[in-house]
Amino acid sequence: MRPEVACVPVGVAAGLATASLVPVLAGLAAVGPAGRALRRRAERAAAERGAAAVGALCVTLAGDLRAGRPPHAALADAVDSAGWAHMPELASAAGLLCSAARFGGDVPQALRAASGRNEGTRGLAAVAACWQVAVDGGAGLAAALDRVAAALRAEADQRDDLRAQLAGPRSTAVLLALLPLFGVVLGAGLGADPSRVLLHTLPGLVCLALGVALEWGGLAWTARIIRVAEGGRPKPPGSARLGGRRAS
């Protein structure tokens, strides 16, 4: 069962407790937004794991190349030892890279194809450029891979620093969003019956609808501000730092 489906029994329980159909409808309506939010969070986590795996692959591959191993064999062994085949976000990329490395395929093309599989593997496009330059011009592939790994680490550090800076605004937004609920609980504790007014009278239902609309608008506005602060869609890892070196 998907986690967002839990909104339905919560809404049903609240509806039974308040003898109203409104919480049940609210629980049903919350399934879609909750599912989208959970999927976005899972995609971001998978992208970060993928980017970290690409950086680790570059470090391992550079070390094997300096030890004198052939590039194709080093790439296949590095992918296998990293366990990419057992990671859902990297399994398809692992198949492409291992096939090209072991059976004499076009490794740069396989790297570019793997970079487009998901957000986390976009750093493989920089690895493909480095591989192509090393094959065509005889440049040092190990040194280029070290630069890719350094660029990926720098971007991960920047992302972590930005996330830490945005933790305060996120916590403030969540606290402000929960204040109306605290008000309802406080009113019930003082002997009033806010749930009856909000769920069983016409003025209360109007106030509840307006409050929910304003709450939703505030959360959406805050989320948009945070997305803008995070810079929207990230660029391919290492592209800005490696663009000049590729051209040279």
UniProtKB/TrEMBL annotation:
Annotated source species: Actinacidiphila rubida
Superkingdom of this protein's organism: Bacteria
Entry-linked InterPro entries: T2SS_GspF_dom (IPR018076)
Stretches that traverse the bilayer: 12-31, 173-191, 197-217
Subcellular location: Cell membrane
Type II secretion system protein GspF domain: residues covered: 60-185
One annotated Gene Ontology cellular component of this protein: plasma membrane
Membrane-related topology note: Multi-pass membrane protein
Keywords tagged on the record: Cell membrane, Membrane, Transmembrane, Transmembrane helix
Name of one Pfam family that matches: T2SSF
Protein known as: Tight adherence protein B
Protein's UniProt keywords contain Transmembrane: yes
